[in-house]
């Protein structure tokens, strides 16, 4: 092998090795930046969904407030409603913290009057009407949480399931108060 | 080196083509339906299965009622008239950017894809709720269709 061919050969080897190193580095950079972008996109998606859940809790809190001050409920029923409202406030606080941790801005509540209009509170004439509305909202909320779990990041699966459990508990109490029969089939929610 | 570049190139091509196909799927609705605009009360309703509508009404209350109503915006926008309407078109509802920018008319196909996985259909949407069972999706879509007006054939002819 001549000196020239030795130089060419080592240059090829050097370029090849450098090329491989550069390619691997470039690939790692591209992949790394894609992962970062994906993380940011996932966080942004979680913020959107968690904010919808906050809006749901705001509405639940307002619904119990409207019910408690409607003058349509027995005092014992008001007490139960206020306890349930406390659970919803607990959910809201957890969700607000989660959104803030992800760098988002938590959804704000609307005015009580706006919720009253949205929920057609003016059509409620007696305690049974109020309980039916509360039951519809709690059932809907339990189903909503169960249905959104697959779309949320895994960090929030458990808390969403816990909230669904609370809503299902509320729904069971309300259904019982309304004298509704126990569902025969399994998997009542979700 | 060549081999690696080739692999990256192929991978990029696959990604690009899959995103193009996904876009096509979203826009694949009937061109006549995409011309639907706001319809008045005088236009006829869509043809629907009464049996499915009855089932769909019950399911709508259970599955969608946590966040939606027919006539009032709540967590999500009101739903009366949603079938045949452009996505993100309820004027007094504050949509996510994803829905505002979604160029889709709600039809059987698009509503079905949306309900299967809304965040895949419109990344960044606030709606995370997925409706797993096809028969439930069909019934709810039929119910929503029963509450919407069919395209006015005379308007389409103009």
Automatic annotation (TrEMBL), chain B:
<keyword id="KW-0479">Metal-binding</keyword>
<keyword id="KW-0813">Transport</keyword>
<keyword id="KW-0249">Electron transport</keyword>
<feature type="signal peptide">
    <location>
        <begin position="1"/>
        <end position="22"/>
    </location>
</feature>
<protein>
    <submittedName>
        <fullName>C-type cytochrome</fullName>
    </submittedName>
</protein>
<feature type="domain" description="Cytochrome c">
    <location>
        <begin position="51"/>
        <end position="148"/>
    </location>
</feature>
<dbReference type="GO" id="GO:0020037">
    <property type="term" value="F:heme binding"/>
</dbReference>
<keyword id="KW-0349">Heme</keyword>
<dbReference type="GO" id="GO:0046872">
    <property type="term" value="F:metal ion binding"/>
</dbReference>
<dbReference type="GO" id="GO:0009055">
    <property type="term" value="F:electron transfer activity"/>
</dbReference>
<keyword id="KW-0408">Iron</keyword>
<dbReference type="InterPro" id="IPR036909">
    <property type="entry name" value="Cyt_c-like_dom_sf"/>
</dbReference>
<keyword id="KW-0732">Signal</keyword>
<dbReference type="Pfam" id="PF00034">
    <property type="entry name" value="Cytochrom_C"/>
</dbReference>
<dbReference type="InterPro" id="IPR002327">
    <property type="entry name" value="Cyt_c_1A/1B"/>
</dbReference>
<dbReference type="InterPro" id="IPR009056">
    <property type="entry name" value="Cyt_c-like_dom"/>
</dbReference>
């Amino acid at each position: 092998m001549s000196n020239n061919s030795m130089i060419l050969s080592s240059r090829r080897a050097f370029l090849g090795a450098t090329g491989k190193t550069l390619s691997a580095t470039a690939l790692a950079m591209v992949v790394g930046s894609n992962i970062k972008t994906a993380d940011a996109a996932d966080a942004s998606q979680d913020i959107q969904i968690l904010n919808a859940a906050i809006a749901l809790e705001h509405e639940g809190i307002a619904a119990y407030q409207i019910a408690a001050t409607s003058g349509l409920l027995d005092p014992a029923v008001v007490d139960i409603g206020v306890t349930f409202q406390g659970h919803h406030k607990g959910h809201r606080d957890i969700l607000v913290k989660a959104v803030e941790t992800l760098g988002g801005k938590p959804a704000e509540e609307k005015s009580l009057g706006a919720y009253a209009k949205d929920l057609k509170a003016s059509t409620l004439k007696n305690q049974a009407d109020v309980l039916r509305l509360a039951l519809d909202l709690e059932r809907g909320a339990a189903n909503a949480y169960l249905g959104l779990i697959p779309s949320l990041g895994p960090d929030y699966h458990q808390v969403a399931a816990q909230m669904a459990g609370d809503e299902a508990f509320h729904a069971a109490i309300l259904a019982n108060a309304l004298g509704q029969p126990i569902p025969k089939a399994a998997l009542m929610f979700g | 080196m060549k081999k690696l570049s080739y692999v990256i190139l192929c991978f990029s091509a696959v990604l690009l083509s899959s995103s193009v196909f996904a876009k096509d799927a979203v826009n694949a609705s009937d061109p006549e339906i995409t011309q639907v605009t706001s319809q008045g009360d005088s236009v006829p309703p869509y043809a629907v299965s009464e049996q499915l509508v009855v089932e769909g009404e019950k399911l709508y209350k259970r599955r969608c009622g946590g966040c939606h109503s027919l006539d009032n915006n709540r967590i999500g926008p009101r739903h009366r008239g949603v079938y045949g309407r452009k996505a993100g078109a309820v004027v007094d509802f504050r949509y996510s950017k994803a829905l505002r920018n979604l160029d889709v008319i709600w039809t059987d196909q698009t509503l079905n894809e949306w309900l299967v996985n809304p965040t895949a259909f419109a990344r960044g949407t606030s709606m995370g709720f997925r409706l797993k069972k096809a028969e439930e999706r069909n019934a709810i879509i039929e119910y929503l269709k029963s509450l919407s007006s069919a395209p006015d054939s005379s308007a389409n002819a103009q």
